[in-house]
Amino acid sequence: MTETTSGSARGAGRSRPGKGLRIERVYTTPGVHPYDEVVWERRDVVMTNWRDGSINFEQRGVEFPDSWSVNAVNIVTSKYFRGAVGTPQREWSLKQLIDRVVKTYRKSGEENGYFAGPADAEIFEHELAYALLHQIFSFNSPVWFNVGTAQKQQVSACFILSVDDSMDSILDWYKEEGLIFKGGSGAGLNLSRIRSSKELLTSGGNASGPVSFMRGADASAGTIKSGGATRRAAKMVVLDVDHPDIEDFIDTKVKEEEKIRALRDAGFDMDLGGADIASVQYQNANNSVRVSDEFMNAVEQGKEFGLRARLTGDVLETVDAKKLFRRMAEAAWACADPGIQYDDEINKWHTCPESGRITASNPCSEYMHLDNSSCNLASLNLMKFLREDDTFDAVNFAKVVELVITAMDISICFADFPTEKIGETTRAFRQLGIGYANLGALLMATGHAYDSDGGRALAGAITSLMTGTAYKRSAELAAIVGAYEGYARNAEPHKRVMRQHADANDTGKRMDDLDTPVWELATKAWKDVAKLGDKHGFRNAQASVLAPTGTIGLMMDCDTTGVEPDLALVKFKKLVGGGSMQIVNGTVARALARLGYQPEQVEAIVEHIAEHGHVVDAPGLKTEHYEVFDCAMGERTISPMGHVRMMAAIQPWISGAISKTVNMSEDATVEEIEEIYFQGWKLGIKALAIYRDNCKVGQPLSAGKGENKGKADDGKATAATVVEKVVEYRPVRKRLPKGRPGITTSFSVGGAEGYMTANSYPDDGLGEVFLKMSKQGSTLAGMMDAFSIAVSVGLQYGVPLETYVSKFTNMRFEPAGLTDDPDVRMAQSIVDYIFRRLALDHLPFETRSALGIHSAAERTRHLETGSYEPDEPAAAEDMRTLAQSAPTEAAPKAPDLKPVPAAVHSSTELLEARQGRSADAPLCFSCGIKMRPAGSCYVCEGCGSTSGCS
């Protein structure tokens, strides 16, 4: 994307001769500003908390491209526009926001000698603006919050602190962490330098130990709302596995979870954000144990392992490594903490070991570098590089990486930092964190299963190309404005790590026509890295991470965040002008076309998914292709090891690490968690965490979630044992009156004939059903009588008809086939037909439409107008505006749209409604809707709020 030319430059506060970048146009046209190439429209943004109807945010008349979705517009307007709402100073157009950021980057780049001349600076500005405008990439949230404003120009979202074994250092820790939380970011640190409670102070008394000091920091984090917002602060606390207090550290959250359960059962409000949850400790941090190869080898071999004094290094006691490892797994089974970080693997890839070891990470575990440092992030939207012929545009992807890395490095020149120590380290090492989002969507769209060799090969190739290109640009920048200050001391280890990346690229598995060209370009990039790095050094000590991309992923209209797979095949979508629909992912149709299905087959499969939410038994879909459509949740889910294998497939080309939680089902065992942690070490992952569904009490979940098992696999009670209140409830049967209205329907299913009589309460819906088939006294007649009585009694005891409909429709057995009913032309069984007919006769349109049941007239209307609902101007307008705001990627067929139930406000809640069970995710503090997973955090689809990551 760039060339270099002779000139003068100033970098990192010092003048030196160098070269300036000549910038090549990729997307823009000479003489045409990117803003003039899109259609702009005005919209009103009104965001409410659906639980109490209160308005959280309102700004009318904002200006955005017509291709931007409602969610993206809402999130950017409410979170990133600066100035008091209702004042002339308030930003109201995306143009103002992008200009505020991009012009600041251009000005700093010119002042610090990055460009060959004004023309190149202008091209840089236009290309950056184009990429942001078209959602090709996004900077992390602090850039949007701060850059170009009168406040401090903080650009980093990730921080690592340090604490030593002194009271002054511990108090500095509290203060520095508080300042970072106040600014809306998170921090992590390792407490292993602090003496254990089993060691003596110089005064003769026993030390308090790190777990004790964690209480004070936890209280501080719970008090300082992150960035003045309602969400809790994000923090990571790490302790080395050889610390004498490691067992207390492992048990901290397990004991508090017991307390939560006891207080909840006593009637206290222990939901996340509840009035009484503040009485529980250690809830504001993610905890991780830093394990060594020595410890993991001891686990593998069943040996003893020594816990060492902090000051002398002497072994204070020995423990059974296997038992300690199991204790970690039991704690994670009970409350999801601690996670695990693999110390030797992390430091094996450390570019600057002469300046200190890597001891900790940021809260989401993707940034890992020196203590008292920070990292600014940016993520690319991978779906923007998928061509219409379903090949990956590796050339333009690499050019955008060069552009973004250049901008990220420029930002360090003008950035402010929360503490002077962090500022000094960051300016000296210039750590960057480029990454991507929408990997799950890309893999599905190209016909790859997330858990497949082909999927991992494509992901690995893209990751290698990204990081190789980033370091290549870093070496080019070093030729212009100088290598990072710490490079001279760390030149050899830095170049060694570059060789490790390149060697891993050479052995990367090539699978098909999609990944092979990407690998080839990555190979060339790594060769350039070696050549340019030897000559000029590197501008940045770190280049890439894989962050959660929660809020910015929604800003870019990504279907999937970070490295995550798709949540489900059917999504919740807001419409311009109000209202919402459920929509089958556009990537589904694209994947089916890539797999060779004809348009009419694609249409039938998409219709099946729209009705059922999954691909099982979809007409014409080969069973070997089911795995392509496996998701994080739903009928077919990706196995926990599938997530781990994907992490292992891309880790060799990530400078830092990967923010990802391995989700496990509620019935997962302690042994399975042990295996996940063990395989993470074997496969060369740097860090991971697990989450077992419904293992936590202290978060708000909708009614109906499963109970915790309360026992480990060996049958012994654990700290997660549940003591539930028993509330006896006896339903009352409501009998029908002597005279009641009814409908008798004759039917034929697959040649088998019968009659159904459905009687109703005079004013309150269906009350009984009678079915007659075959001769009196036959087995079939007797079973139909018994079935009718069971259903009728259930209806009279209050079982909703829609419950029966959701359970019995799509049940398959003979006789099946064509019917004589124009509203239900095909039935998979007699029971399937009966309950479709009952739904059409007795359920309101919204309820049965959510279940995918429509009359012949409604289906005809859908073909003509795109809507099942009666013709209304508002509905037609919604459909037109939806078409205007649809994603720009081509697909063989527009996704199928259906109304959503009134109580559904997010994709997670839609999945709950389809599955009939609760998803284990917290509620958004601002909107009150269910959040969705994003890396090791959660993000709200409604307002972009996160549960901890920026």
From TrEMBL:
Residues 1-15 have a biased composition (Low complexity). Residues 45-135 form the Ribonucleotide reductase class II vitamin B12-dependent N-terminal domain. Pfam families: Ribonuc_red_2_N, Ribonuc_red_lgC, TSCPD. Keywords: Cobalamin, Cobalt, Disulfide bond, DNA synthesis, Nucleotide-binding, Oxidoreductase. Residues 156-691 form the Ribonucleotide reductase large subunit C-terminal domain. The keyword Membrane does not apply. InterPro entries: RdRp_reductase_class-2, RNR_2_N, RNR_lg_C, RNR_NrdJ/NrdZ, TSCPD_dom. Gene3D superfamilies: 3.20.70.20. Catalyzes the reduction of ribonucleotides to deoxyribonucleotides. May function to provide a pool of deoxyribonucleotide precursors for DNA repair during oxygen limitation and/or for immediate growth after restoration of oxygen. This is Vitamin B12-dependent ribonucleotide reductase.
